[in-house]
């Protein structure tokens, strides 16, 4: 099965229940976007389906229960671009990107340098190999991490099925040029047969790039489907608890504006 699914997923932090019986299905060949207010459980869901935190319920990747996979098997199937990454030591850009190859690839040693340079070129960091990551801007560091995860799951399809790119707020530190570039990379990865799951706050980028959009509220899925069906006035008001008006600027392409802006 070419999908990544969560069945009746619950997550608790102490006595606090963060996720409430969440059911989500992301399909390979598509970009699935998870959106919602702060504290709605988006990042927790990403961590759970990536196997990074304990959960109750069931998570399957390509039909295999996540709990049956060893760490190296998970690393070969999915790569995670976290919301924030701190690097404690003075690693160069090339060294950080190489971590992705070491985590997810087997038998690529002869191609390591070429893959690193190609990955850096894809994220607009040509010539950065020897720069120290600690000396880069926040957006540049984010693009280094993107190059790392791309190296980890370089081929969208493997012998064990599609590979998965899982991203938590990937465009948060990026300027508009690199936001679009990152989402283009993600979209292209999906079109090649891989799977993409991304937490996003930008509803307009979500409308453009998502094949499947999941809106969460208070630890549960509020509504999901195609962006043109999900991003309605009623659903946006219900989920975000504020007046938001979708406008259609192209067939099946809503554009979101806060209603208070209409008075300007």
Automatic annotation (TrEMBL):
Residues 4-243 form the ABC transporter domain. GO terms for molecular function: ATP binding; ATP hydrolysis activity. Pfam families: ABC_tran. CDD domains: ABC_Iron-Siderophores_B12_Hemin. InterPro entries: AAA+_ATPase, ABC_transporter-like_ATP-bd, ABC_transporter-like_CS, P-loop_NTPase. Keywords: ATP-binding, Nucleotide-binding, Translocase, Transport. PANTHER family: HEMIN IMPORT ATP-BINDING PROTEIN HMUV (PTHR42794:SF1). Belongs to the ABC transporter superfamily. Part of the ABC transporter complex HmuTUV involved in hemin import. Responsible for energy coupling to the transport system. This is Iron ABC transporter. It comes from Rhizobium oryziradicis. The lineage of its organism: Bacteria, Pseudomonadati, Pseudomonadota, Alphaproteobacteria, Hyphomicrobiales.
């Amino acid at each position: 099965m070419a999908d990544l699914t969560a069945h009746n997923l619950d997550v608790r932090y102490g006595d606090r229940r963060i996720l409430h019986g969440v059911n989500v299905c992301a399909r390979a060949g598509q970009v699935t976007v998870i959106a919602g207010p702060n504290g709605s459980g988006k990042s927790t869901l990403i961590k759970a389906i990536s196997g990074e935190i304990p959960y109750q319920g069931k998570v399957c990747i390509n039909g295999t229960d996540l709990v049956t996979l060893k760490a190296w098997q998970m690393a070969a199937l999915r790569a995670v671009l976290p919301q924030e990454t701190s690097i404690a030591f003075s690693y160069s850009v090339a060294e950080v990107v190489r971590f992705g190859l070491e985590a997810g690839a087997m038998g690529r040693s002869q191609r390591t340098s070429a893959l690193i340079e190609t990955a850096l070129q894809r994220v607009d960091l040509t010539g950065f190999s020897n720069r120290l990551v600690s000396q880069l801007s926040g957006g540049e560091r984010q693009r280094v991490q993107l190059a790392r995860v791309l190296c980890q799951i370089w081929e969208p399809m493997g012998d064990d099925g599609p590979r998965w790119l899982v991203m938590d707020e990937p465009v948060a530190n990026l300027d508009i040029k690199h936001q679009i570039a990152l989402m283009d990379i993600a979209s292209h990865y999906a079109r090649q047969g891989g799977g993409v799951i991304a937490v996003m706050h930008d509803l307009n980028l979500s409308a453009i790039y998502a094949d499947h959009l999941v809106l969460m509220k208070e630890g549960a899925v509020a509504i999901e489907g195609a962006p043109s069906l999900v991003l309605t006035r009623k659903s946006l008001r219900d989920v975000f608890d504020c007046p938001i008006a979708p406008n259609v600027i192209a067939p099946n392409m809503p554009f979101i504006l806060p209603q208070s802006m209409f008075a300007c």
